[in-house]
Design goal:
The chain is an alpha+beta fold. The chain has one domain (20-131): Hypothetical protein yqbg, CATH 1.10.3230. 36% of the residues lie in helices and 9% in strands. It has four helices and four strands. The protein has helices at 26-32, 43-61, 87-102, 120-124, and strands at 3-5, 64-66, 82-84, 129-131. Strands 1-4 form a two-stranded antiparallel ribbon. Strands 2-3 form a two-stranded parallel ribbon. Helix 2 (43-61) packs across helix 3. The longest helix is centred in the middle third of the chain and has 19 residues, at 43-61. The chain is globular, with a radius of gyration of 16 Å. It starts with a strand and ends with a strand. This is Phage gp6-like head-tail connector protein. It holds the Pfam family Phage_connect_1.
Amino acid sequence: MITIRALQPRLNDLSNAGMQKLMINLETVKKQVHIEDDDTEHDVLLGVYISAAKKHVADYLNRTVYWPEDIKPEESLRPEHWMDANEPCELAGLLVIAHWFANRESVVVGTITSEVPQGFKALLNPYRIINV
């Protein structure tokens, strides 16, 4: 098996001054889907979406993604197959959660749909491992 890896952008060059700790959590998700912090009606569902979105990001990238709350192993046999979550991973996760929250059925009837051009795939493609 041959592994082709896209070049990763240099995120270290970006200033992180004033940025919150990177994490997809209930508070951030509620802001993304326009729910008030004190509204707890959807908390369980949003928790499911958070877990599923993190897995979805990792599955799309074909690698393990470690989020800040995860415990990383001290060493990995294949370090090229994992990465720390970064801002594009977080935003892609938030986009897919908002999509799932707004579209709770597997089929949309009577509506023209299209993918957002600078959405999930555009954010994650630079970090994706493609097996050939």
